[in-house]
Each structure stands twice: as C-alpha cells, then as structure tokens.
User: What shape does this take?
Amino acid sequence: MIEDFELTLIVPVYEEEENIVPFLKEVIGKVKIPHKVLIIYDRDEDSTLNKRKEATSIHSNITFFHNTYGTGIISALKTGFAKAGTKYIVPIMADLSDMPETVNAMYQKIQEGYDLVVGSRYVKGGAKVGGSLVKFFLSRAANLSLHFLTRIPTHDMTNAFIMYRKEVLEWIDIRSTGGFEMTIEIIGKAYFQGYKITEVPTINRDRAAGKSKFKLLSWILKYLYWYLYVLINLNKRRMMQIMSRIKDEQV
Assistant: This one.
C-alpha cells in the first residue's frame, strides 16, 4: 500500500551514530501525521551510516540521502528542501534536542492558514533545557529583542524547528552560509512577503549523546548580519509606507 504523505521531516546528520536509532523510534512513536523522514548526510564515512540498516528497518518511510549541495547544515537542509515532495516540511535535529510531538501541534496550526509555524522555546509552555548558559542568554536576548523591535509574530527566530508550506521555501533564495542563522533570514524574508507566521511552544533539550556541532564564535557574526538585515529592511519598508501615506494625503 502506498502511503499518502503530507509531511517530510528533514534530518541533517553528522556523526550521530549514538542518537539516530533512538531518535527515529521517538519520531515514529510520537508524530501522528503521515510523514516521511529524509536523513541527509555529507560523506560516506559518517558514523551515522553504521546504523543505516537498523534505522531503515524501523519504518519504510525512512530514507538516507547524500548531501548534494556541499557540506554542512545549510546545504543539508537545502538538499532536504529540494527532495521533499510534500505539502509541509519540518527540519528536526537527530540529537534528540527537538520534541517530535510538537510537530502535531505545528500541523494543527498550519491547518488554520498559516505558512510558517515556529517551535518556540521562548513563549509560555516552551523551554530550553540544559546546554551552555552563555549560548542560552545570547539566544534569548537576540530573539526577544528581535520580536520586540520588529513585531514579527514569533519569539524564537533562531530555532530551526519550523513547519513550512513548501511554496515558501521554493520562493526564498537562502543566502546564509554559516548555520542556524538561516532561520532568521527565512522568517524575515517570509514576513516581508506577507506570509502568515505563528508559533507553538516547544521544549528544546540538550543533546542526548555526542558533541555539539554549534560553533558560537564562527557563527555569531553571521547571526548578527541577519539580525541587522531584518531590522534595517523592516524599518526601510515601514518608512516607505509612511512616506506613501503622506504623499497620498497631500494629493
């Protein structure tokens, strides 16, 4: 029987041998919407592939794909976006940091007509559990200040755990080159184009095993670039709207 999938979960991996099987079992057990899982890896030597046979035996909807856009998190996600043929797409991390059951709440929201549904750590009911305090405070400060200054309807613009309508990703030309700062770029550009954005609470856990791939020092300037990009472009647009109204009133 051919299943009718509405949703693709995109899972970028790098040395996740310890986590991939527990992660997939958690996903299959908790995500209630018919879905397929695309696991994107950079190289054949990745230790995650040691568990490939065991992983694909969990369910027929699980497939491994080689990263065709290069290496790293952004190119892996681009590969997943391109290969996903479903109406909805959700990137989710294999390190057991994301809560798969949040996908069900995202799906309920997107059925209300939204185009992006963000899994938010910084809204009532959400939380960040474990991890570096420095990273937590930087993330919280950046996200809450962005929400306050822009009024974009999410309190968490740096969490990649988002449900997208596929057409949103088809429209946006992703120019980020570092890591998860790409979510600031995508959310900002989507907001500028009038796509409807909302959020649901999620709990983000520190990884269950292995080492974090987050590179704070090398990525912080890239986060800052897109932070300023959103602020500057939003203010330009608002100024143009004000000038247009003034001009109309003078006519």
User: Anything to note?
Assistant: The beta strands are 7-13, 35-41, 62-66, 88-91, 116-120, 127-129, 162-165, 197-201, 203-205. The mean pLDDT is 90.
